Amino acid sequence: MKPQVYEYWLYSIPGVGWKTASKLLEAFGSAEEIYRAKEQRVESLLNAAQAEGYRKLKKTWNPGEEYHKLQEKGIFFTSFWAEDYPGNLKHIPDPPLGIFWKGRLPREDVPAVAVIGARECSEYGRYVAQSLGKALAEAGVQVVSGMARGIDGISQEAALSEGGASFGILGSGVDICYPAQNRPLYERLLQKGGVLSPYPPGTKPAPSLFPPRNRIVSGLADVLVVVEARLKSGTLITVDMALEQGREVYVVPGRLTDRLSDGCNRLLKQGAGILLSPQDFLQEIWQLFPGKCGSERRTEDPEGGGNAGRRDTTGRGKNSERARDVEEGENAGRDKIAEGGDAAEPAEIESFRNGKRFTPLEARVLEALDFYPRSVEQIRTLVPGVPEYRQTQQILMKLCLEGEAVQAGAGYFCKKAPSRHL
Predict the structure, then answer these.
(1) pTM of the model
(2) Residue (of 136, 87, 60) closest to 295 by Cα position
(3) What is the number of domains present in the chain?
(4) 382 Cβ contact partners less than 8 Å away, ≥ 6 residues apart
């Protein structure tokens, strides 16, 4: 039988962790030899509780049968000593003894970026996470995160929607989707990436399981990016782990008055890298990891010149023509509004507002919105001609119904981030 069959058995002995497993392997040479050794010899290296767990498992487990049951569920296992164990994890402090996964494992020759942040993120955070996930996928960079609500899941969804690869690290068994509302994301990860966990199948999520999970999120990544985080945030614990592991940490800056950016701004003060645009960030990744390629995402020069094989980090990718047309239409509309003239014609507006038709005044109100909430009074004063308060309020409510704006509180509105990606 394959070595991982017996390594799975060793991993399953209650109370046996990294230190004990290493001691046993040093004494016997392999997990199979531990299984076949006389019980007295094995128990001499265990404490009382471990010895009891070992005896029970030895009586009740058939390694081959149990491993086959695991595979029947589409679940695989790799141990620290296996060839397919993720290389990035082998060099972190206290690496997991084993990893369970469904789908596939991350590629070793492709950069991986962990995108993390607040669960209750703002529309600004949503916009940045979507833009970043999309750009990373277009460049062929793997996106790693915790499949949590908010920034984590949004960045992963955007990467998958762009055809990229993403990997979710769970604080439960890989056969349990948590949070339950992310079931569609979970299923997509299985198709275009994978879900991984250090915990055996059937393990239910618990608060104590997430901090150890977070060290795997940062450990699998080459670079960690924080999009939004409060001053006292679990996200900052993952940052500490990433720094201990020697990972590069980048932060998306935010406004001084925004509490969701307090943690990010503090990290910037402490010397974290600053992420000002996905394109600049990608250029830095290629410089940091010249030995890793960007999967299949490359732009080739048809003439075979100096640009042949150069990575596409323009943010266009396979949708370049559509993206250019959309941007040109949007810029044309903005220019007209900025000049105080008529807004773009309805056909132009439709081209960059998902086919939705808006009047010139509605388009101007929409342009006055930001991803940070503004009051109705602030918005109306930013609109050329300064419409009446009631008229502005009615337009904002219509934009909310159309899915283009969000009411962030009594009398406050902000722009809504795209539902999938830019």
Answers:
(1) 0.72
(2) 136
(3) 3
(4) 368, 374
